[in-house]
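sanity check this record:

:::
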Amino acid sequence: MFSYKLPCGDFQTVTAMTVHNISFDPPVYEQRYCAAVQILSDPRWKSQIRKSVEFGCAEIRFFPLLRRIETIENIVLVDIDEDVLKKYMHRIDPLVSDHIRQRQCPLQVKVLQGNVADFSDELRDTDAVIALELIEHVYDDVLTEIPVNIFGFMQPKIAIFSTPNSDYNVIFTRFNTLLPNGFRHEDHKFEWTREEFKSWCMGIVQKYPNYMFALMGVGNPPQDYESVGHVSQIALFVRKDILEMRLEHPLTRNVGETNRYQLIHGVTYPFHVDTRSKEQRIWDDVQYELNTFKQYYKYKSGEDDFEDMHKMPIETLLSRIHRTGATREILDDILKKKSVQVEDQFVLIEDSDEDSVTSTHSETLEQSLNKVELPGEDEEFWDVN
C-alpha cells in the first residue's frame, strides 16, 4: 500500500442525519465523480493519461466530466447492458459549444457493449481504468476475471475502483432503507466491509506486483458514527513505474486471445490546430493585450479625458502573455520588429479609432449549458441524497 491524498485536497461535504433519514450534500455519486476527476488530473501522471476506459458506464453520467480533461484523447465507455447504452449513447455527442470553442487536442469517444472480464482489442494501450460502483454487481466468476483483464491484459498506468462500504450499513438499518436482500440495491451480489475490500486489493497486488494501491472514500459518516468509515470506499491502483519505481516484471504488451466488443456509438470531437508560428502567436497576444489595456483606460477616463498616448509596463504585458512561452528577450525583439514604441520599461500605446485586435482573439460567448440530470430510477437511495 501507499499513502495518497487528492491533489486539490479534501472537498467540503455535509452528511446530515435526522430522526427520519440521512442525507449527503453533494450527493455521493457527485463526490465519487469529483474524487475520480481529481485522481485523473493528478500532475504526477496527468500528461501520461491519453486513453481511458470506464467499465460499467451505464447511463454515461461520468463522461461529461471525463471529457473536460484536455490531455485525454481517447475515451472508451463499456457496459454489458446494450439497451441502456442505446438509450443514453447520445450523451457522448459534441455540444454546440464544442464546435464554437474547439479543443486543443483530438478526442475520440466510443460506447461499447462488452463484458468487463473479457480481453478485447479495443482495450489495448489503455492508460487509465475507471470502475465506479461496478464490482458489487457481478457474480464471482466475473469478479475473479476482472483483475486478470485489467492488470494482466490491459496493464494501465492507474485504475480506480469504488464499491459500497457495508460497515456503513448499520446507519441505513436505522431508516429501513436496505432492501430485502440486505443490500442497498437489488442487483448487488455483495457489499464488502473495509477489511474485505482491502483484502481484495491486497490479493491483486500480490498477483500483479507491478502495482501499488491506496484506499480512500467519499460520503463522510455523521457525527458520533466516525467508526463506520465512508459510505463509498475507493481504491487507487498505480503502476510502479509511474511512481518512478522499478517494475517487478516487464510489461507483456497485452498478450492473449481477445473477444471483440460491439460498437454502439462513436464520435470524433472537433479540435483546433494552431498553425501559427510562435512569434506570430506572441504578436497576436501582444496586440490583444495592448488593445485591451487601451480600451480599459479609455472607458475609465472617458472619451474626452483619455490621453493620446498611454503607457503599459512591459512586465505587465509579459505576465499576460506568459502562456505563449514569451520571454523578455523574445518580447523585446518582437516589439522592435513591429516598430512598437518603447520608452524605459513601458510600451507606448497610441490612441486610434481602429482596434489592433486580430481575428485570432475574437471572443464568443459560450451559451450552451450542461444540464445536471438526476440519477436514474435504479440508483441507490444513499447515492441520491
The chain has two domains: 14-272+375-384, 278-354.
